[in-house]
Amino acid sequence: MLPSASARARALQPILDAAGPEIDRLHQLTPEVTDALFENDMLRLLLPKSLGGQEIHPVEFCKTTEAVAWGDASAGWFVNQSNVSAASSAAAMPQDAAAAIFNGKRTGLAWGSKNNTSKAIRVEGGYRLTGTWGFASGSRHTTWIGAHSAVQNPDGTPHIRHGRPDDRSFVFLKSKAKIIDDWNVLGLRGTGSDTYTVEDLFVPDEHAPARDAPEERVLKQPLYSISSHLLYATGFTGVTLGVARRLLETLTELARGKQGRASPTPMARNNAVQKEIAQLEAKLSAARAFLHEAINEAYDGAVAGALTLDHRMRLRLATTYAMGEATDVSVACYRAAGTTAILASAPFERRFRDAMSASQHLQGMSAHLEMVGRHIIGTENAAQFL
User: Fold this and answer.
1) N- to C-terminal Cα distance for the chain?
2) Does this model's pTM top 0.70?
3) How far is residue 260 from each of residues 35, 111, 295, measured CA to CA in Å?
4) Would residue 71 count as lying in a domain?
5) Which domain holds residue 204?
6) Residue 384 lies in a domain
């Protein structure tokens, strides 16, 4: 029997940690790291057991992305992105098609963010897809890639399905796309989140799931009633917690031996440093505990067949809040480390860049808090990303 996913992730931390600088330089994971992730079955954590996956509890998934990101943030980002993309697609696809795509440990799925410039034209047996998408995290290490687009009829009018405009995700071999190497960014460099384009690509019906349409969900297990938005949020929050935890542990180790030039006492005996480390520990632990509580409540609701809007709002609140708190902890650790933090040879600088880049993701945006606040108050509200 395999150890838990989070235990396997913790066992990989020395490999991930050692490879971090090279991952950052290459703008992709190293072969040693990808092999280790594949061998430890880190890309099938959320796939159903019927497809050879592990179908783990979302709290365990969150702990796993956290543990991977403690070693390297880009690796944690890739693990989350591929797992949620694969599971949410498989949940809404014919299972023979899903089995053919997700047929081994080394098969991942990457895709970029949705935009309004793509075109998917409904034709017999499938769609003709044209467009350009960016932010395809982990695509340098996957066999399959995908894209999101609204669907049009041949005459250009919106295609309607289930009483609303049809919006789908399209899964195809990466070899069918033109990849543009343009990932030049502050942090999370190892995700290799390139831009890609396809022109008039035929995608068959069975490879075009409407991932979050309940009418098309094939898999009925509780995990798959949680939307892809919230599963992404759960895993990405785990990444930010893992980076912040690593920075806090690194700051604590620094404090045990450093004498700051501007202070008459060593960091370990400085009351302000002592208090700050304690407060940062409380801040990070509290955010993590709230996140796990909200995930458990949502999952328990799904098990009972009663995953409510309140559950989903609370999980959205917990993920957004925890990403913000983790970012604050990362910034505070960087600041507290003094000039040591700016050295490329020290363990602060790269992780600080990773933390800042992760904080800019859609999942951490403050607009989510405004939406939850409106829900709590009971005023007019447009529920989205739930």
Assistant:
1) 35
2) yes
3) 42, 46, 41
4) yes
5) 109-216
6) no
